[in-house]
Design a protein that fits this description.
Helices cover 59% and strands 0% of the residues. With 103 residues, the protein is mostly helical.
Length: 103
């Protein structure tokens, strides 16, 4: 299986956090380096280790060769996440165009 249970959880958490924090104002900008390190090395390695624990004993290295495909998968997810963060940080609401509500 190309995407495992851990991967589904990570993707679900990302979708939830993106939806939850889309309308909030961020005062502190998150740099690209932590996002790069997270999606380029840390999360794929954790995913590979979890998948190898689930598989258990394996005799041939070609049986678990698909686990190395986690790296490009998370690279694509990380690039999409950085694009989403960039769009969110570049979006500035116009204070002049907002109208006051009459109650």
């Amino acid at each position: 299986m190309l995407i495992g249970y851990f991967d589904y959880v990570v993707i679900g958490i990302l979708i939830f956090l993106n939806i939850k924090y889309w309308k909030t104002d961020f005062e502190k900008k998150i740099g690209c380096l932590p996002v790069f390190l997270l999606f380029a090395f840390l999360i794929p390695l954790i995913s590979i280790f979890i998948e190898l624990q689930i598989v258990g004993e394996w005799m041939d290295s070609y049986e678990v060769l698909y686990t190395y495909l986690r790296f490009p998968t998370y690279w694509i997810i990380g690039i999409v996440q950085m694009i989403i963060i960039g769009i969110r940080l570049s979006r500035k609401p116009d204070k002049e165009s907002e109208t006051e509500k009459i109650e």
